[in-house]
Structure formats: C-alpha cells, structure tokens
Write a structure and sequence with these properties.
alpha+beta; YaeB-like fold; 5-stranded mixed beta sheet
C-alpha cells in the first residue's frame, strides 16, 4: 500500500467541510467523515482509481461518495500526495498551484 501525505490546506478544507455538515446534522457529519475515510483507504489500495484531471499531468480526482466533494491528488513514487479537498462547484484554480509541491 502507498503512504498518504496530506497538504496542510487539504486538511483544513476537509475539517471546514465536516464542520459545515456538523452545523446541520451530527449524523450527516459522521457519514461525511466515514465517506472521506473510505475514499482515502481506497486511494491507498488503488492509487490510480481517480480520474485524470485535464490539463494537469499526473493529477487525479476521486469523488467522495454521496457528497459534492472530491480529493485532488498526485502519486509520487510510493506516496500519494493529497493536495486539495474541494467542492465540485468551486474553481479548481484555487488549488492547482499546490500540484508538484515537494513539501
């Protein structure tokens, strides 16, 4: 299995989204967290499962089942770098500069 590395920004985005769901329903927030965890586990097992992001060589996107979010990531050797946790209706330009960041 691959190692997972989260960018600080991706962690913040995921926490922010979970908080938004928690304000509406604790149950929905728990379900959201489970679906995110499921997606991350799936990525560890199958790093190329996400669809390629057009215009970003090697960058991929995996949708979070049941929610309007996706994980933007890239595979770097044996590490999966999660660069963003984004809402599907938001402009991807907000996170594209994080790609290929060795940090």
């Amino acid at each position: 299995m691959h190692d997972i590395r989260f960018s600080d920004a991706a962690v913040f985005e995921a926490i922010e989204a979970k908080e938004w769901y928690r304000l509406g329903s604790a149950e929905k927030s728990r379900l959201f967290e489970k679906k995110v965890d499921d997606a991350v586990l799936l990525l560890r097992q199958f790093p190329k499962i996400g669809s390629l992001i057009e215009g970003d060589e090697g960058a991929r996107r995996l949708l979070v089942t049941g929610f309007p979010y996706y994980i933007a990531y890239e595979v770097q050797s044996r590490t999966i770098h999660l660069v963003a946790f984004a809402h599907t209706s938001r402009d991807p330009e907000s996170w594209r500069s994080r790609l290929n960041d060795p940090a």
